[in-house]
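WARN no homologs supplied; continuing
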Amino acid sequence: MELKEILSKSILVPSKLPDSDFVINPYTGCSFGCSYCYASFMSRYVEKEIDDWGNFVFVKKNAPELLQKDLKRFKNFGEGKIILFSSVTDPYQGVENKYQLTRKCLEVLLDFGFLGEVSILTKSSLIIRDIDLFAKFKHISVGLTITSVDDEISKFFEKFAPKVSERFLALEKLNSAEIDTYAFFGPILPHFASSPEKMEEVFMRLSKVGTKKLYIEHINLSNYIRNRLFAETNFSQEILKTFYESKTKNYRSKIDKFLVDLVKKYDMKILGGGKAIYHKDFNN
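OK structure emitted
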């Protein structure tokens, strides 16, 4: 994997996402290399190909210093604003062990006295390292991406990410520390349509560890994602068919019905507008 230190021109960037005003991406690229990752489009901004995603990480080593300057634009210490770590990288991927840019940026926010909300999303159990900082924020929510309860399935699609079982343990530790948590259940893999009991296992496990809020996302099969996903996984024609079916209205309706029933059964709350996120930018 190519690891490179760079000087970034900006770090606190206005967000187009519905539940955040700004995003902080301390790294460009992600070593987890998930085959379905929408953020692979970022490759072109650093003169890489889509297929290079997962094989490079550029470290924005001046991120904490940039953040100190960027925060000066906030009035009332950012009250009412939401900052997300991160939108196109994982803030707790392996290099965070060495560089600690996410932790340093959190410390900058605390030193500034940030009164808005901090939201964090990761696939890494490394996040529990920073529980001491999370406890100092007035408003913070910490989420982990969950795509199944099976470590073998998560390893297949999320090659170098921590095991999903470790993510459930991280959520449990965060909840025990009274940190507000959520799960990002997505992308919803096609096998759930034929095995709804597998989907219920996800809700059961989340409920057991104490996480009651979640975002839900249907799989995004835009051309650039689909081409990379299918090239890397070498699916059979039968499995490919199930992926294509996942973009049909009948499939989504079936899945959405399962979700509504499970949310009610386990007394959970869907964030992001109260329904699963669906990407319409699919081209045949």
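The CA atoms of residues 2 and 56 lie 4 Å apart.
OK
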